[in-house]
Amino acid sequence: MLTAIQETIDFLKSRGVGQVDTGIILGTGLGGLIDHIDITVEIPYEDIPHFPVSTVEFHKGKLIYGTLAGKNVLAMQGRFHYYEGYSMQEVTYPVRVMKFLEIKHLLISNAAGSMNTDWKKGELMLLDDHINLQPANPLRGVNVPEFGSIFTDMSAPYDKALNQQLETLASSLDIPLNVGVYVAVEGPSLETRAEYRFLRNIGADAVGMSTVPEVIVANQMGLPCCAISVLTDDCDPDNLQPVDIADIIAIAQTAEKDLIRLYQELIKNL
Predict the structure, then answer these.
(1) DSSP for 119-180?
(2) With contact defined as beta carbons under 8 Å apart, do 81 and 59 qualify?
(3) What residue ranges in the chain does DSSP mark as E strands?
(4) Do 81 and 222 meet the contact criterion of CB atoms below 8 Å apart?
(5) pLDDT score for 56
(6) 31: Cβ–Cβ under 8 A, 6 or more apart, which residues?
(7) Between 245-269 and 160-172, two packed helices, what is the crossing angle to 10 degrees?
(8) 41 near 74, Cβ under 8 Å?
(9) Whole-structure pTM over 0.90, yes or no?
(10) 3-state secondary structure (DSSP) of residue 24
(11) 239 pairs with which residues across the strands?
(12) Which positions ≥6 away from 47 have C-beta within 8 Å?
């Protein structure tokens, strides 16, 4: 994989990707941040050596390089998921590439279902911790010293300093920001009532199908990261209603304005 990563980096640099301060992964329905980037380079995933190609129709599938809030950023407009048929190593490959491009921080977003009945859909949740119920781990395999130990400590997966900054910024911008636990499941089907009840009972506030693999790899490589979920649907097992993916996308796109404000201000202060 080291050879592949170097080939990817050489290609990106040949296309004009230079020094990068912050990496960004934009989740389902959350591509609006791209409109605030002064774009220098825009590359479809299919043109990048060794990159997977996003198969989800509402993920754009582009790597964006430019400036945001005065900082150089590299943003993934669309991510990869285990449920698309990719291995965990493929899902997390871009994180390793960004780390080798010497990014200092990784900012992640996703759309998630809320199982906390005190919260409302359309609100944001800052991830303080997670539960990994996906069937594979991206660190599985031979230990590569350049990546860090496969026995990565996960006692604090989300950088405390970044989270504290986000909570302070949310307060100053008058943006409601819930703090909770995200549980990652395999997908792509949504959960049954019994499954939501189980996930809530084991301590999760929100459920989704992404983010955790990237966070595990970021921790392995010593890359400070944070993640925010846009809560797109209510997952109360006692009052569960059918959900349409189009509705989830629409709510994510409506709610992401607060996410954009938070990440813009955070990047400005990094």
Answers:
(1) S-TT-EEEEEEEEE-SS--TT-SS--TTT--SS---SS-S-HHHHHHHHHHHHHTT--EEEE
(2) no
(3) 22-26, 38-44, 62-68, 71-77, 105-114, 124-132, 177-184, 206-208, 225-234
(4) no
(5) 60
(6) 60, 77, 78
(7) 100
(8) no
(9) yes
(10) strand
(11) none
(12) none
DSSP state of 212: H
| Orientation of helix 93-100 relative to helix 2-14, angle to 10° | 60
Structure tokens at 59: 């993920």
* Paired tokens of 267: 């990047």
Q: How far apart are CA 206 and CA 124, in angstroms?
A: 10
CA-to-CA dists, residue 170 to 124, 206, 224, 255, angstroms: 10, 19, 20, 14
Would you state the structure tokens that stand for residue 166, as one six-digit string? 């986000």
How wide is the angle at C-alpha 223 spanned by C-alphas 226 and 125, nearest 5°?
Answer: 10
pLDDT tens, 30-76? 778 899 999 999 999 999 999 987 666 555 689 999 999 999 999 99
Token couple for 73: 């950023």
* CA–CA distance, 147 with 170 (Å, rounded to integer): 33
Which residue's entry shows tokens 């539960």?
131
Mean pLDDT of successive 10-residue segments in the chain (270 residues)? 94 96 87 90 94 68 94 94 94 97 96 94 96 97 93 97 98 96 96 96 97 98 97 90 83 87 94
Any idea which residue has 């995933």 for tokens?
A: 45
**pLDDT given at position 224:** 98
Q: Which two tokens stand for residue 156?
A: 């604090």
What integer pLDDT is reported at residue 151 of this predicted model? 96
Q: What pLDDT is stored for residue 119 in this prediction?
A: 95
